[in-house]
Write a structure and sequence with these properties.
About 30% of the residues lie in helices and about 25% in strands. The protein has about 400 residues and is of the alpha/beta class. The strands form three sheets. Strands 4, 13, 14, 15, 16, 17, 18, 19 and 20 form a nine-stranded mixed beta sheet that branches. It is globular and about 70 Å long. The termini are far apart. The protein binds pyridoxal-5'-phosphate (PLP).
Length: about 400
Amino acid sequence: MLDYIDDKLYIEAVSAESLADQFATPCFVYSKSSILDNYRAYTDSFPSPHRIFYAVKANSNLSILRLLNSLGGGFDCVSGGEIARVIQAGANPKQIIFSGVGKSETEIRTAITLGIHSINIESSGELDRIEYIASELGKDVRVAIRINPDIEADTHSYITTGTKKDKFGVAPLQALELCAKINSWPHIILVGISCHIGSQISSISPFVNALEQILNFVNCNKLQLEFIDIGGGLGVTYQDETPPAIKEYANSILSILGDSTTYLIVEPGRSIVANAGVILTRVEYLKNNFAIVDAGMNDLIRPALYGSYHNIIPASRNEDETHTYNVVGPICESADFLGKDRSLTVKPGDLLAIQSCGAYCASASSNYNSRPRPAEIMVDGENCTLIRKRETIEQLWENEQCDV
Ligand code: PLP
């Protein structure tokens, strides 16, 4: 998706400079073909009856949801807001899975009323709440129990979700108790077992371990299921990670499933959009070893939150001498860095592209320091479309009361 032509950076067939001129900086730019390629790698590798439910949290822009909806995909949502977005994007409720540890009564009521594909249950209390609402509404609810397999996923501790110290899912013994409850309730139908051990996992073995445990649980307890949901997808390359190809990962997973009639659900987010997006940002000032740019941690929280690495490249390449800079934003926090110790040739006014910003960046952005959130643009060949306007200053306080 990114290429230099005559030392000028292009996103598909549009130059980074022309995008910055047209839409100003900072801005998010996504490549449509890159999103489509990444998505199709999953649908090709997990053919029907297996199903892909895109994890909306990775990037919830309506245009991206609409694009994936047009390919017939499903959606994994973790809030009432995400469910509403997906419906707004034109999805059928039957394409929605509802995950998350803290589903509110209102959110569960909405999900049941809509008749979504299924709810991933994370606790006994949540199951009780679902049963009570389903009985009150007189509706049947399809559920999957999320098992916590107690597996180290070899990723950052903040995005590890499948060990027993994490808040997610239930232990296998507890899952059995939930199965018994479900069997005794007419409105609740157990259709699946789910599991999500973490994100940005770059090797196959943790997924294989998790699936083996789940299959063991299903077989030992003679559960008749429609599907097994193995959670998020593979990690991506931010710096020097070498995740396997989606096909290789899918072959390993599908070979464990054997000739079972149970289909698989995969909920990839990061690997669909992360490397399909960049942030374009201009250098405001150079000071000591700092390159101070106009994007900040409110636009890109990952380096401050997880110490994540994002490659930073110039929009115009030249042969001048490089210097080592910490690329930092304008926010009043020393955690506001976008890249440390980067070799760059830059001067104020220069345009930079921060790579791998399609996932967990715009969707995790905020207004901290009263900064309007950036514009988002989708590039498709030579065309570019504004898919989210830059917030205005007035929008910063539009929900606030001035009369107290
Ligand atoms: N499914 C669930 C339940 C998740 O919590 C997440 C993210 O953490 C995902 C899917 C998406 O994971 P990834 O972006 O690594 O594919």
